[in-house]
Amino acid sequence: MLFGTVLLLSSLQMVAQKGAIAGTVYDPDGFPMLGANVVIQGTSQGAQTDFIEGKYQFQVDAGTYTLVASYVGFGEQILEDVTVLPNETTILDITFGEDTGVELALDVTVTAQALERGEVAVLKLRENSDKVQDIISSQEIQRLGAGTAAAALTKVTGTTVVDGKYVYVRGLGDRYSATTLNGLRLPSIDPYRNSAQLDLIPTNLLDNIVANKTFTPDLPGDFTGGSVNIKLKALPERFTFGVSVSTAYNAQSNLRDDFLTFNAGDRAGLGYNDGTLDRPAILDDPRIAELDILASSSARRAGGDDATAALLDQTARSFTNGFGLQQMNTPLDYSISANIGNQFNLGNMPVGAFASLSYSRDYSQYTNGVRANYINPMTGADLQEEFNLRDNQSVEAPKIGGMLGLSFRPSSASTINLYGIYSHQAFIEGRSLVGANNDFGLGGTEDNYFASQTNSFLSRDLRNYVVEGQHVIKGLGNTKIEWAGNYVDSEQNEPDLRFLAYTVNGGFPQINPAQLILPSHFYRDLSDDSYQGKVDITIPFLQAKSRGNAIKFGGLYNTKDRDFNETSYVYENRSGLSFGEANGDPGIYFGDDNIGVIGGEPGRNTVGLYITDNTQLSNSYVGSYDIYAGYGMVTYEVSPKFKVIGGLRLEGTKIDIVSDLAALSLNPEDYEAHIDTLALLPALNLVYKLRDGQNIRASFSQTIARPNMREVAPFGSFGFIGEPPVFGNPDLSVTSIDNYDLRYEIFPNAGEVIAISAFYKRFRDPIVTTFRNAGEQQFTWTNSESASLYGLELEFRKSLAFIGSSFTNFTFSSNLSYIESVQDIDDKEYRDALDIDPDFPQTRPFNGQSPWIVNANLGYATQESGWDAFVSFNYFADRLTSIGAVGASDIFERGRSSLDINLTKKINNITFSARARNVLNPKYETFSDFKGKEYLFSSYERGREFSLGISYGL
């Protein structure tokens, strides 16, 4: 890596004014032409297309040229007036006609490599694909102003993103979506989720995003809604260098003096814990266990035992006792990024190198939000309010990301790529909830209310090391071998999450242990180590009949080891000031004068607040998650218009979970979970080409959905106010799904598409969230008997030049999805609900499923003036977010619209940008309808964001 970086820098002056020409050459049927020649007329300067994807690229001085494309058996193609600008790449995709014509798809981008980064070219990929898929190019991502892969995916047909990071395709939750990075599975680092956090991947690293919506055996078998593959940016064919800075303002979050925060240490601004939030080291002192210091009885014993008193005092004072929230002045959001890349020769072998680094710091806040909960009292037509709280939340989010890459091209038929990716995020949160709580008889008045506050620091790290290769063996009929392997080290840490709850009754604050969870410190850490390897071999056959005929087979192995730990400690009060005597001031109550040994004399010690261990060993676990697969498939062109793609995938699943409590239990099997299955997954895809640029696609396949480790881990996790405990279910089984798809698509002109799709899915043993059979409200996961889903998708993308010459530079694109889903409610839950509400339905939609999803985009771009404008609109309808209390209606997230505007102006190598996000500023709300009346569970606004940026690029 260092050697490549040195060569990059040394090449700066030598190549800074050069440009490049790159692209892909196609035959009349749309297949890449391997070994075609593209040269500047009258010279030998040019390149031959590779034997892997039919791509070519070469550097050239800025100017205007005439190119000649040639291939054995075809007449030479003359391409005149090809303009190359300094420090830019001209994308020139060439299609040989049946006779002497040539079609051009010409585009210009700063760091393009051939086909896969232009909007025109990705549609060519989609037209010739063997499956139903949608593709978004990095060019379009840049125009959308999307900062992460998650934000970019909101523009893909039928796709929504939940919580800003989890992809839902066709209304199905993240359980039914697979996420891969360069074809390798990207693991989740959230124990409650199956799919990866896509906000970890910045868009400046991306080449394109492909959402496959039908299954073929070479794809992961555990997707139903979609398999999203994020392809990393190809390494540059010329010297590139760029740096960008931006700043953003949101009236709710920036330049405020009421932003809630706490002292998280000196490195918190970079998103790292410098040790301030570490679990105290004294807790590992063997004397703690010998003297039983963390037991409730230790304070009583400390009264007459000086050794116990001294260690109790030292332990209590070792914790960070700052439970109060502070207010700070916030600056503007800001970000900075840089990248550098080049291509050079190592002997006669071309080598490419690329590096990028980014840092950002964002602030988000809402005040006077709503957080409420309701239950059915079985006494009338209305739900009863449990609590209704005013919600104030502030989150500071620093992020650091980087990538290093090397690409080797030993020959035109072989390439090897190495990548290293690092992504780090932190979320420093202060949250305050104040208001009515009927469980405690508190009406929410000035002297009669419930309150809680949380200080939280959560960090996520992803380190992904990838090596991959593609090789074409010319002597074996251009047999193609693709292989890849990676190691992913991911972590999620929550050091010293502090939770404080209290009541104020008649103006008197108190912490009543009979009612409330005592003030607590939580320490949680999760680490995943994942290894993957895959190989795909494609053998062409009957090439004289069709170049698309091929046999493909391969295999995959993925193993992940997890270690999850949770410890918690609470404060008990022996003889210190009560919370009321401290006037409800956390600074006084947890102050030095009220912690540990606060008075007395040797042998007669007075103890105030002290620490006891509230850790549940069952809440910590280790687990392994192994997937192994092998497949075979055939692509056969029955006729020039009809293509069949069929095959079978065998995919095994082995999940083992062992709670830390198992080793201490007489019945360890009660604290273990095991799944070991093998699934046979057939797939059949049919493509009928009505005429050039028109396809009908039909498919049938079987896929699966797996539970994640947390869902089968047999323990209950603590929920904060309004969040019931959640228990894993070790008896969960794998879901089987039948998928039916039909699509008609038209590609009228370069860069244009019109498509309509229909789909139906039937689920056996779907995994659903339901109530746990217990006295108090608890949730768990279970397999219901069946479920189904069907829907329609419409997509339209077209240049507006047909309206008139004034609209030549305008492009309009839109997509719409209508989806209906039904899942059976667990029998036990249904019977319990009928006792409360005789009209309670026996079905509900899928969690996170929206019946309507709409995207509409209007773009304007001119190469001559350098202006690029993009207006983007998105809407999703109400979607189920969580199950309601027994007998009450389920809780839905209210549908909302969003509008973003992006404007850029390029002057030479400098690009200025102005963006407005969340222009409509809709409310983020969850609600429930019960017997015709609406109940609001949560509500807040995110505010409008306005940003300015400037970038310089070669």
Automatic annotation (TrEMBL):
Principal cellular location given in the protein's record: membrane
Keywords, ordered alphabetically: Cell outer membrane, Membrane, Receptor, TonB box
InterPro entries (UniProt xref): Beta-barrel_TonB, Beta-barrel_TonB_sf, CarboxyPept-like_regulatory, Plug_dom, Plug_dom_sf
Subcellular location: Cell outer membrane
Domain annotation TonB-dependent receptor-like beta-barrel: ranges: 442-919
GO cellular component: cell outer membrane
Domain TonB-dependent receptor plug: 133-213
SUPFAM superfamilies, per the entry: Carboxypeptidase regulatory domain-like, Porins
Domain of life of the native organism: Bacteria
Membership in a protein family: Belongs to the TonB-dependent receptor family.
UniProt protein name: TonB-dependent receptor
Species, as recorded: Neolewinella xylanilytica
